[in-house]
Structures are given as structure tokens and as C-alpha cells.
């Protein structure tokens, strides 16, 4: 059975899909893709079934990734059962996920993606939503996602054993 990582943002068309693509790339490079499965979702369901935002897809494609396979999904309470590691992109995503936890104890399982960011300073835990901005916001988000994902994959052997 594989270890499952769920990446969650608001719409599942910008931040979590970008992190999904980058994490799958790094897992393949680390030879962990047969042991770890990645899924992503939005806490809001407006974009369910849609492909990635074109600005997110463009910045990924420019950096050599394939954004074409993404299909937006919506987070629900079953994800607590189905996934081992639940990572929120921002604090409102974390709160919305916790609200759907099947038990109070399960609420504590929702962690922040940027917990793994080697450059994060104290209190700086969110991946900012690039939706309302331009291409430079998406490029900054990709850089943040790449360095965070590298650290996450480095820590995965410990997580797989825990
Ligand atoms: P995401 O960005 O949460 O990173 O996918 C957003 C996408 C869509 C909306 C908001 C944020 N929206 O309001 O539709």
C-alpha cells in the first residue's frame, strides 16, 4: 500500500496543482514514486473537473513540467481516511479542512505545506494565493513550491517509517 500525500488549496487550479506536479516530479527523481502517491484538491468546488489555471500551467511548462494531466477535485471528509499526510497551502485552507475532520483528534492532522520550506521564517507559513495577480506571482509561488518540495522529499524516508 502506498503512502498518500494530499495537497490542498482553495480552488485546486493554481497552488495545489503546481505542488502536485512538482512533487510527482521529485518523487520520480528520488525513486519514491512507487511508494508514494500524490493527490490534490480544493476546499471549494467551483472548479471541479477543470484543468489548471492557464497562468499556473504556463509557468510550469516554462520550467519543464507537464501541467496537462490535472483535473480539479474537491476536498471532503473521506480524505482524512484516504490520505496519510494532509498539507494545506494557507491558513484558511487549513481551517476549512479541519472543519471537515471526522473527529476533533483528526483536526490536528492538517499540517501546513510550508512547514517544510527551508527558507520560511517564523510565522511565515502560507503559500500566497496568486489567483488575483500576474505571472510574477505564479513564478514566485513555483520557486517556493520547488524548495519546499525538495525538503519534503528529503524528509519522506522518516515520514514513511513513522
Ligand atoms: P488556488 O487559487 O486556491 O491556488 O487554486 C484560487 C483559484 C480559484 C479561486 C480562488 C483561488 N476562485 O475564487 O475561484
TrEMBL record:
<dbReference type="InterPro" id="IPR050438">
    <property type="entry name" value="LMW_PTPase"/>
</dbReference>
<dbReference type="GO" id="GO:0004725">
    <property type="term" value="F:protein tyrosine phosphatase activity"/>
</dbReference>
<keyword id="KW-0904">Protein phosphatase</keyword>
<protein>
    <recommendedName>
        <fullName>protein-tyrosine-phosphatase</fullName>
        <ecNumber>3.1.3.48</ecNumber>
    </recommendedName>
</protein>
<comment type="similarity">
    <text>Belongs to the low molecular weight phosphotyrosine protein phosphatase family.</text>
</comment>
<keyword id="KW-0378">Hydrolase</keyword>
<dbReference type="InterPro" id="IPR036196">
    <property type="entry name" value="Ptyr_pPase_sf"/>
</dbReference>
<dbReference type="InterPro" id="IPR023485">
    <property type="entry name" value="Ptyr_pPase"/>
</dbReference>
<feature type="domain" description="Phosphotyrosine protein phosphatase I">
    <location>
        <begin position="3"/>
        <end position="155"/>
    </location>
</feature>
<dbReference type="Pfam" id="PF01451">
    <property type="entry name" value="LMWPc"/>
</dbReference>
<dbReference type="InterPro" id="IPR017867">
    <property type="entry name" value="Tyr_phospatase_low_mol_wt"/>
</dbReference>
